[in-house]
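Researcher: We're teaching a course module on how sequence relates to structure. For the next exercise, students receive a sequence and then see the predicted structure as tokens, so they can try to spot secondary structure elements on their own. Here is the exercise chain.
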Amino acid sequence: MGPRNRSMVTEFLLLGLTERPELQLPLFFLFLGIYITTTVGNLGMIAVIRLSAQLHTPMYYFLSSLSFIDFCYSSVIVPKMLVGFLCEDKSISYSGCTTQVFFFLIFVISECFMLAAMAYDRYVAICSPLLYNVIMSPRVCSLLVAAVFSVGFTGAAAHSGGILKLSFCGSNIIKHYFCDTVSLIRLSCSSTYIDEFLIFAIGGFNMVTTSLTIIISYAFILRSILHIHSKEGRSKAFNTCSSHLMAVLIFYGSLMSMYLKPASSSSLVQEKVSSVFYTAVIPMLNPLIYSLRNKEVKNALTKLLRRKIYL
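Model: And here is the predicted structure for the students to work with:
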């Protein structure tokens, strides 16, 4: 019997970020500005990398993939949230809710592994500079990006498959601004053991694998930087990975503040603030971090703008 026949709930109600009427319009314009900045920043980053020959390197290939992920997973969440600020109808269909869960998980899992792949790229660039072009060949880079999205798709499919088997026969009110696995598990009136196990197993694997890859890569990077005798050489080596390290700290910091804390100490407001940070703010910050702190990106953007003006 299919999930729709087993479930008496055909739609869910998203309570949104806040239920206070006087805040709906200001929040709409705030998040509209954030989403426009996210869209322009990430698509602009992809365009600059594609149009600038000097940026056709493995590091920027991964960065353009990260920008694509940030744009996509922000687009899965924010437009629906913006509609919720303006419309009294807060409903989302059963299929719409599960679809949102599926695509959000694809891109958020892919983000974790993309950051790990970028850490490995920086490790090879700093620790084995003479072999960098051999190790990080175009074929290897393409395989790494394909593997990142494959892991994201597999994890999302496993979670979504578990969600589709749940029955919803009670309340259909989601006390959040988007559909996520935890919210749906709380509403289910059937056994959620498998879904909770998947969250623990898949989430644990993703966090441990990616965080260990990043930590080990940066441990070797730090050791290599400390062996560089010149101050200028150490500064140059550190600058090549400082933007990525900042993006990693912001992303994993927000995830840990959301999930790695006792349930009793977590309020609904705290959960929503943490969620806003990694669903809306981080996708906006990443292109700003990589453009403002990266001379090569700024130089490439300047050249492209001058070329356009002269044309």
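Model: If you want an answer key for the exercise: The chain has a mean pLDDT of 84. The longest strand covers residues 11-14.
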